[in-house]
Write a structure and sequence with these properties.
By secondary structure, the protein is α+β, with helices and mostly antiparallel strands. 25% of the residues lie in helices and 16% in strands. The two termini are 19 Å apart. The structure holds iron/sulfur cluster (2 copies) and FE2/S2 (inorganic) cluster.
């Protein structure tokens, strides 16, 4: 059985409809399937199930497609067995047992939905709701709260409780980005276990006793670890909420796009939640080979940059040396140009440099934040067709690798740049190009997805010598402001493609937003530029580009968008080395 459980564990996936009551006579032992040496065979609601030895009844049930409702169990955390929601009936055991902590045994006959079990579940629900404030109309978790889902599926729908509820503190900051509503908490301890077992930061504890028990932080230790948002993900109710998302949207309006975080070389699998063409949150998507169930706060908040930094939306042209163009009135609005003339001009400027100074007068700086498709077309058009002899990729590093996910390498597709033949990120190669531009040896420069200021070797004086500066980027930047032709590219969430993470796993990024203004994906801009240099390949879609790359690059052989699916696949070398085992460095 996969160590990753199916969607019901994901906080933003509503609980499936309950299985219909099954209350028949015990099935015959003869119905048990054959089990291998490391397996056990059992019957769950009359369905024969073969589970791995050591699997719990709850995990075996999931494998059989039977939902056993649960709050405190989470597949990425230790088993606490404190909510009692997962009680099931097991033949020959007089009392109901908790499915999350009972090992599946050979020949076991389990009933998860008969009248006895459903009666107890309704009782647990009633007990949990005694002191619950029932503020669902204002609760941000409405629509993905397990209390709501299970109450409608298993609850009795009324309360016998007439006394005053216990009141606890509401809506207070428990950490930088997390708010806590103590009244909603059902004390499942998932958040505590996350801090103790995964982030290893140990900020949370359970204090007091009985109906006054409360989750809290230790004095002077707010919930401030780099993964604090994961406590919100694991909270099965609306007790912990993520401040940047609070009251931004009802979850049923959100469309979740399964994609990959581009914050660092890990490439955590995420769901990008969009509504009305805007990203409202990013949450982790389970992938056992990459990020298990988690993501860091930095990645979770990375989309905010999209709305904070200015974009440019249409191609921009400025006079280049030798152009017969009147200097522009500084107070006049930025000239805008449609794509074709801008691409014609970019091609003409680069061709003129090649004619005047030979191909050695050209160089390109290309970002490893681009997709494989972007980089592959860049290599073909700039390297092979235009004959640019030097294509360099700047490295971006910050902080340190940590014990869990974070990587110091902040270029999400460094391995992709190397795989398509542009080369690994190298500060030295970038420095050499920029210094040569200052000296006047490089006269034509193509910059894709990078701002030159801040790169090694950068000097303001390099612009004086450049006869052609063609920039493709999604942000406005000082480099875009100096470009002779600047072409607007799609930003994160607006383009599709693939990247290769530091483990050598190829993963798909998907688009969930319409491109801003006239922005186009980088591969398409480069393809259109390539047509002006004689590119004859038809690349109607990023899928077509990937297929071409997979046909020509040995490391990508055998891969396709279909083969990558939602969880990606290792490069050919890793596939040969390990079959079914996690990639090295996982
Ligand atoms: S805050 Fe949420 S995750 Fe933590 S114990 Fe309470 S209900 Fe469970
Ligand atoms: S570890 Fe890296 S890839 Fe994962 S969420 Fe954080 S920034 Fe994104
Ligand atoms: S999920 Fe089994 S006791 Fe909570």
């Amino acid at each position: 059985m996969s160590e990753i459980s199916p969607p019901p564990h994901q906080p933003n996936v509503p609980a499936p409809a309950p299985a219909p009551p099954v209350d028949r006579a015990p099935a015959a032992a003869a119905a048990l399937p054959q089990a291998g040496p490391d397996e056990v065979a059992l019957l769950i609601d009359d369905r024969p199930v073969v589970a791995k030895k050591g699997a719990t009844v709850l995990q075996a049930a999931e494998k059989a497609g039977v939902l056993v409702p649960h709050y405190c169990y989470h597949p990425g955390l230790s088993i606490a067995g404190n909510c009692r929601m997962c009680l099931v009936e097991i033949e020959k055991m007089p009392k109901l047992q908790i499915a999350c902590a009972t090992a599946a045994a050979p020949g076991m006959v389990v009933r998860t939905a008969n009248d006895r079990v459903r009666g107890v579940r309704a009782g647990i629900q009633e007990f949990l709701l005694i002191n619950h404030p029932l503020d669902c109309p204002i609760c941000d978790q409405a629509g993905e709260c397990r209390l709501q889902a299970y109450e409608s599926a298993y609850g009795q729908g009324y309360s016998r409780f007439e006394e005053e509820k216990v009141h606890s503190p509401k809506r207070y900051d428990i950490g930088r980005d997390v708010k806590f509503d103590a009244e909603r908490c059902i004390k499942c301890t998932r958040c505590i276990r996350f801090c103790d077992e995964v982030s290893l930061s140990h900020e949370l504890g359970l204090f007091q006793r009985g109906d006054h028990a409360i989750i809290g932080t230790f004095p002077g230790r707010p919930l401030d670890n780099p993964y604090s948002g994961c406590t919100v993900d694991v909270c099965p109710v609306g007790a912990l909420t993520w401040k940047p998302f609070r009251f931004k949207s009802r979850v049923w309006f959100l469309k979740n796009i399964p994609t990959v975080c581009a914050g660092c070389a890990r490439g955590c699998n995420v769901d990008l939640a969009t509504f009305r063409d805007r990203i409202h949150r990013m949450t982790p998507r389970a992938n056992p080979d990459v990020n298990r169930y988690w993501m860091c706060d930095e990645g979770r908040e990375s989309y905010a940059e999209l709305y904070e930094r200015p974009r440019f939306e249409s191609p921009v042209e400025r006079p280049a040396p030798g152009d017969r163009v009147e200097p522009r009135d500084a107070s006049a609005p930025e000239p805008e140009s449609p794509w074709d003339p801008a691409l014609d001009r970019a091609a003409a400027l680069l061709r003129a440099v090649a004619e005047r100074h030979g191909p050695k007068g050209l160089a390109a700086i290309v970002s490893a934040r681009l997709t494989i498709e972007d980089l592959y077309v860049a290599k073909r058009v700039l390297g092979d067709l235009l004959g640019v002899p030097r294509l360099a990729v700047p490295p971006h590093e910050a902080g340190e690798d940590d014990h869990l996910l974070l990587r110091r390498d902040k270029t999400p597709n460094a391995r992709g740049a190397d795989t398509v033949g542009i080369g690994a990120p190298s500060a030295g190669r970038v420095k050499e190009i920029l210094e040569d531009a200052v000296l006047g040896h490089v006269r034509g420069l193509v910059v894709v997805g990078e701002d030159l200021t801040g790169l090694p070797g950068y000097s303001e004086s390099l612009y004086e010598k450049l006869e052609a500066l063609v920039v493709i980027d999604w942000w406005k930047s000082p480099t875009v402001d100096r470009a002779h032709v600047a072409l607007p590219a799609c930003g994160y969430g607006e383009f599709e493609g693939t990247m290769i993470n530091f483990q050598g796993r190829v993963q798909r990024l998907r688009a969930g937003l319409r491109p801003q203004g006239e922005a186009d994906p980088v591969w398409r801009i480069l393809r259109d530029l390539g047509y002006r240099f004689g590119l004859s390949s038809e690349y109607p879609t990023p899928r077509a580009v990937f297929e071409d790359a997979a046909a020509k690059i040995a490391a990508l052989s055998g891969l396709s968008y279909r083969a990558l699916g939602d969880l990606g696949a290792p490069l050919a070398a890793a596939r040969e080395r390990t079959v079914g085992a996690p990639a090295p460095g996982a």
